[in-house]
């Protein structure tokens, strides 16, 4: 029987029933995250109408200016989730350190990792942005959350996904049982199942990269991108270039259509020797989603999901999308084609 049109909460409950001894804690976490995303979606849609975007004048942990909507998204998710009793800590791209769930809230076994508003430099030009999230289970039974508990390999994720605030608002998530997409029906305020069991094509015809950085890449990365532009590589045509500059949007398009997104190490740029994207908050969650959709994510040498972070805000080169495309990128990066 088709589940199309099912609400996200109903879907979570259905999945929960398939897991013996499930306590419902995880479903509670996800349903609160959905409420937070609805609030963020509402504010994002108001941008331009009220004085909500623009800079706050503050600088975040990466030395970037913080925008008001980043801050709103960060605070809204924390406020909605801290009382659920299922989290012990939150890691956010907008915060330097582990944020433990404080007294008087009760604590649970999960750690939420998030990029509250990815691509936020695109807000004031009306381009889609997103919230990326990921959930880990802590290793210890109680006590303060240790850094070691947060720095887990992506393969240990319990769930991951994103919300995309685009021409419609969508949630795409996985708990390791496939990837499912829900679209927000604004007039009833519900996310309804619209994309069941998403599978990414094994090979695509799209590549997404900030090619302005070409001169910062090493020879092998350049060779790979040159290969994608050869006249006959994609059914008698070159690959098509599509780059929004908003990770969630670029990823989402390639998930549905096939292709590769990359943010290589800008090895010749002293400011971004490891690329730009963050392993915990950005690369690992999307790597879990793409793997569950039949795709693959790599740092150019090995699976993103196998990399153990050394720090919360570590950056990593990212190659993600259709399995054959990403494997081909790895071959080029190994220097197999000269
Ligand atoms: P952000 O987390 O500060 O918004 O930065 C991440 C964004 C991604 O959404 C996007 O893929 C990338 O930065 C674009 O970077 P660039 O402008 O260097 O191409
Ligand atoms: Mg980001």
Count of helical regions: 8
- Beta content comes to 15-25%
Number of strands: 15
The profile of the biggest β sheet is: 8 strands, mixed
Strand order of the largest sheet: 4-3-5-6-7-8-9-10
Instruction: Determine the structural class based on helices, strands and strand pairing.
Output: alpha+beta
Q: What is the 3D form?
A: globular
Kindly state the percentage of residues in helix: 25-40%
Bound molecules: 2,5-anhydro-1,6-di-O-phosphono-D-mannitol, magnesium ion
Reading the helices and strands in chain order gives HHEEHEEEEHEEEEEHEHEHEEH
Instruction: List unreliable stretches of 5+ residues.
Output: none
Distance between the termini: 51 Å
Question: What is the arithmetic mean of pLDDT?
Answer: 91
Radius of gyration: 20 Å
Keywords:
about 350 residues, alpha+beta, binds magnesium ion, 15 strands, globular, 5-stranded mixed sheet, binds 2,5-anhydro-1,6-di-O-phosphono-D-mannitol, about 30% helix
Write a structural description.
- The structure is a single chain.
- With 338 residues, the protein is of the alpha+beta class.
- The protein contains eight helices and 15 strands.
- It has helices at residues 8-17, 25-46, 68-81, 147-150, 219-228, 247-257, 279-292, 323-333, and strands spanning 55-59, 65-67, 87-92, 99-100, 110-118, 129-137, 159-165, 169-174, 179-185, 190-195, 206-208, 240-241, 260-263, 296-298, 318-321.
- The strands form three sheets. An eight-stranded mixed beta sheet has the order 4-3-5-6-7-8-9-10, with helices on both faces.
- Helix 1 (8-17) packs antiparallel against helix 2 (25-46), helix 2 runs antiparallel to helix 3 and helix 5 (219-228) packs across helix 8 (323-333).
- The protein is globular, with a radius of gyration of 20 Å.
- 46% of the residues are buried.
- The mean pLDDT is 91.
- 2,5-anhydro-1,6-di-O-phosphono-D-mannitol binds next to strand 5.
């Amino acid at each position: 029987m088709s589940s199309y049109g099912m609400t996200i909460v109903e879907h979570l409950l259905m999945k929960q029933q398939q897991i013996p001894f499930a306590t419902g804690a995880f479903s509670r976490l996800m349903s609160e995250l959905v409420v937070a995303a609805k609030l963020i979606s509402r504010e994002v849609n108001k941008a331009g109408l009220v004085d909500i975007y623009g800079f706050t004048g503050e600088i975040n942990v990466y030395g970037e200016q913080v925008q008001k909507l980043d801050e709103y998204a960060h605070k809204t998710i924390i406020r909605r989730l801290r009382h659920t009793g299922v989290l012990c800590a939150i890691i956010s791209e907008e915060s330097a350190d582990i944020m433990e769930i404080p007294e008087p809230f009760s604590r649970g076994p999960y750690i939420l990792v998030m990029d509250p508003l990815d691509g936020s430099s695109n807000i004031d030009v009306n381009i889609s942005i997103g919230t990326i999230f990921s959930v880990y289970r802590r290793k210890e039974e109680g006590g303060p959350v240790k850094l070691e508990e947060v720095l887990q390999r992506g393969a240990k994720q319990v769930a991951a996904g994103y919300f995309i605030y685009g021409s419609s608002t969508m949630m795409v998530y996985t708990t390791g049982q496939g990837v499912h997409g829900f679209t927000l029906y604004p007039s009833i305020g519900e996310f309804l199942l619209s994309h069941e069991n998403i599978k990414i094509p094994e090979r695509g015809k799209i590549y997404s990269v900030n090619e302005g950085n070409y001169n910062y890449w090493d020879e092998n990365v350049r060779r790979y991108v040159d290969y994608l532009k050869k006249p006959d590589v994609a059914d008698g045509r070159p690959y098509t270039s599509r780059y929004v500059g908003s990770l969630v949007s670029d990823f989402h398009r390639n998930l549905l259509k096939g292709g590769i997104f990359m943010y290589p190490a800008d090895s010749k740029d002293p400011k971004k020797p490891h690329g730009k994207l963050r392993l915990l908050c950005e690369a690992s969650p999307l790597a879990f989603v793409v793997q569950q959709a039949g795709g693959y994510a790599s740092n150019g040498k090995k699976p993103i999901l196998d990399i153990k972070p050394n720090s919360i805000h570590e950056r990593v080169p990212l190659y993600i999308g259709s399995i054959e495309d990403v494997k081909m990128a790895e071959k080029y990066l190994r220097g197999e084609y000269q």
